[in-house]
Amino acid sequence: MKRLLPSIFAAAFALSASAAQAQDKPPLKIGGILDMSSLYADITGPGSETAAKMAVEDFGGEVLGRKIQVLAADHLNKADLSANIARDMLDNQGVEMIYDVAASATALAAGEIAKARNKIIMFNGPGSIRLTNEACGPYTVHYVFDTYGQANVTGLAAVKSGLDTWFFLTADYAFGQDLEKDTGSVVTKTGGKVLGSVRHPLNTSDFSSFLLQAQASKAKVIGLANAGGDTVNAIKQAAEFGITKGGQKVSPLLAFVSDIDSIGLETAQGLLLAEAFYWDLNDDTRAFSKRFMERTKRVPTSAQAGVYSSVTHYLKAVKAAGTTDAAAVMKVMKETPINDFFAKNGKIREDGRMIHDMYLFEVKKPSESKGRWDDYKLLATVPGNEAFQSLEQSRCPLVKK
Q1: Assign residue 352 a region: left if phi > 0, alpha if psi is -120 to 50, beta otherwise?
Q2: How far apart are CA 318 and CA 325, in angstroms?
Q3: 42, 83, 276, 359, 376 from 281: Cα distances, Å
Q4: Higher model confidence: residue 21 or residue 119?
Q5: How far apart are CA 172 and CA 170, in angstroms?
Q6: For residues 175-188, b (16+ Cβ closer than 10 Å) or e, as one string?
Q7: What is the pLDDT of residue 9?
Q8: How confident is the model over 358-378, as a mean pLDDT?
Q9: Would you give the distance in Å from CA 100 to the centre of its chain?
Q10: 3-state secondary structure (DSSP) of residue 257
């Protein structure tokens, strides 16, 4: 027995030293740059921070002997503030990866900061196609949706069903402009016509003058190239003005289940919309959404579900690579298919676009809904290679042609 004691003490000392060494390692920090208080807060905001924390907890809370810490900051929908937050996170706070960055102008600004520092940035809330075209980077991932995919899924279905003349109500910044351009291109290529457009400031409360112009165009479809609170307000006011009763169709080119909840089925019924995720699609989406709802009292939006999926994919890649070095981690991320509740056989391409299925939904009538959040009927599943821009069309300098 006496002979065993030294070896027991040695083993205990080694374990103690190992634990102390792990505690001495700095935490692995990931930082969210979010809209926590304005028109996109329900789409991303606190829900995206919660999703990131859930991903970290489910992963085990640490990787490579380092505790994982989730940070979040409010960019107030200001591009310069978003850039400053990204700079502070990467230069001063030791953040290794930035997630979400709701809104396109803020994402483009933060993306340039991350690119200059060779750090990974994963976009979940923004939509601008520029993020995987001109503004792409070797460590940039556009995970959930983009303006091309939204336009392709919604615009194509609408024109094919006979809704072939369009007028756009467009948010006057990068995302809105790209969404109008991409949808207009789909409409004209499919044989439809764009009769005109009008641009409105971000976070508009009164859409009356813009809606009157759209109404006067006699277009069959008023395409809403905006998001969040702007989409909600425009749809509500279009109903108040009797535009939909007059025969024109309002098509939100980017809408989330949180928007439909705000609008209400009475007003939103019949809307066609494209989404990357819906909480009630299958058993896997329902299981995740149930856990998310226990914390937030709301179902996850596609952006929030994408945060969980992308953070998990990143952490798995860090573990597999054995390092947080951006080049090594990104290599693993691009080589590894994504199979979870969010995506089946998802793949990150060389331009940073994560390819996955998209879905076309119709908003239910109140009589068809079984309760709050039961809002969508699935009309079509569009494979990712059909929904998103092809590599041949890409304007990303990283793409070899």
Answers
A1: left
A2: 8
A3: 20, 36, 11, 10, 9
A4: 119
A5: 6
A6: bbbbbbbbbbebbe
A7: 44
A8: 96
A9: 7
A10: helix
